[in-house]
Backbone:
């Protein structure tokens, strides 16, 4: 089995160093200390212009759970469009509804947008399952 090394990065310097160290691809994130959020459009563009390996972009409008509002969902759809325009390899998305069920209607709309524009990776939101289970009735 061949392995691929993907490195999460939150700066141009870390992206360059990961590429130099032999990473097969990058995952761009902001706020790694809180589990990652969407990086700025300027950061995405900067990395795309300066590295030569595939770049995936985490799309998450805020830290915390994966229960996104309609306005946050629209932000995600707009970010998908921007990532496609920048030529990213894939976007990494996740969606979690209360009581640990994937909220398929919204995930499907994001995946549909990705299918038309670029590749999508559905992020595992397992780290939040225990959190939700403790709060569930």
Residues:
């Amino acid at each position: 089995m061949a392995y691929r090394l993907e490195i999460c990065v939150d700066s141009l310097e870390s992206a360059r160093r990961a590429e130099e160290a032999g990473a097969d691809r990058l995952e761009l994130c902001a706020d790694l200390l809180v589990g990652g959020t969407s990086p700025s459009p300027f950061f995405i563009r900067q990395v795309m212009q300066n590295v030569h390996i595939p770049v995936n972009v985490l799309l998450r409008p805020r830290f915390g759970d994966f229960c996104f509002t309609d306005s946050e969902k629209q932000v995600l759809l707009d970010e998908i469009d921007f990532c496609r325009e920048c030529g990213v390899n894939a976007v990494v998305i996740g969606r979690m509804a209360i009581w640990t069920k994937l909220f398929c209607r919204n995930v499907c709309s994001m995946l549909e947008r990705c299918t038309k524009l670029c590749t999508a990776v559905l992020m595992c939101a397992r780290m939040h399952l225990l959190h939700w289970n403790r709060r569930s009735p």
